[in-house]
Structures are given as structure tokens and as C-alpha cells.
Automatic annotation (TrEMBL):
VOC domain segment(s): 1-124
Name of this chain's protein: VOC family protein
Source organism of the structure: Sinorhizobium kummerowiae
Pfam families (UniProt xref): Glyoxalase
InterPro entries, sorted: Glyas_Bleomycin-R_OHBP_Dase, Glyas_Fos-R_dOase_dom, VOC_core
Gene3D superfamilies noted in UniProt: 2,3-Dihydroxybiphenyl 1,2-Dioxygenase, domain 1
Coiled-coil features, chain-numbered ranges: none
Length: 127
């Protein structure tokens, strides 16, 4: 359903360092970049699915209250590693890895990037 997602940043260098580290456990890597954006995608995908950008209108990037990007993880261990990598890369904790009440196998972790954007990694597979 989604073609791609963009998240705003006021410091692409800092954001790139954070996302390089946090997205690696989910199989996503930096595939494109220039002075106004960085694109992340999975190996073999023809396009970047997550972009970190400076806003097109050149105004400061802001976060959306209630907005969040949830990324699929292949395993619970990948969720754990995502969370640890995000925190080590300058993110803040919004919910430690663990099962959530949405269904029996909904294992997730929540973080905010250095610009305040909220992210989640989710594995819906049994352990």
C-alpha cells in the first residue's frame, strides 16, 4: 500500500548516522543521498522506501504528534537490535522491546530519532 515515507530532519548528517545504525538490523541500508535527502531501502528493492529529508519549503522540520513509522522486523532479535542501535545512535526510548497487547505475537520496540520522529520495529512472528 505505501510507496515510500519521508521524515524531516534539521541535521541530515546526524540523522544519517542515526538511521544507518538503527535500520541495519531491519535489513535497510542507505542507498541514495544528496545535500537534501537520504534514501533507505532493502537489498534488491528497486526504490528507497524511507527518506530522511530537509523540508521542501526550506522551513524547520517538525514532528507530528501521533505520527509514527512502523517497520517490519524479521525476528524478535532484530527488534531488540534495532532498539539498542537506535539508542546507541542518539535516539530516545519510547518503549522497550516486548510483547504488546495487539495480538499474541506482536513484539515491538519504540524510539524517537534525534529530530523527534517516532519509529517502531515490529515482529509478528512467534518466537
Amino acid at each position: 500500500m505505501l510507496l515510500y515515507v519521508t521524515l524531516g530532519s534539521n541535521d541530515l548528517e546526524r540523522a544519517g548516522a542515526f538511521y544507518d545504525r538503527a535500520l541495519a538490523p531491519l535489513g535497510l541500508k542507505r542507498r541514495k543521498e544528496d545535500e537534501v535527502e537520504i534514501g533507505y531501502g532493502a537489498e534488491g528493492d528497486v526504490r528507497c522506501r524511507l527518506w530522511v529529508v530537509t523540508p521542501f519549503n526550506r522551513e524547520a522540520a517538525t514532528i507530528g504528534n501521533g505520527s509514527m513509522v512502523a517497520l517490519e522486523a524479521e525476528s524478535r532479535a532484530a527488534v531488540d537490535t534495532f532498539h539498542a542501535a537506535a539508542l546507541a545512535g542518539g535516539g530516545t526510548d519510547e518503549g522497550a522491546p516486548g510483547l504488546r497487547p495487539f495480538h499474541a505475537n506482536f513484539y515491538a520496540a519504540y524510539v524517537r530519532d534525534p529530530d523527534g520522529n517516532k519509529l517502531s520495529a515490529v515482529c509478528e512472528r512467534p518466537e
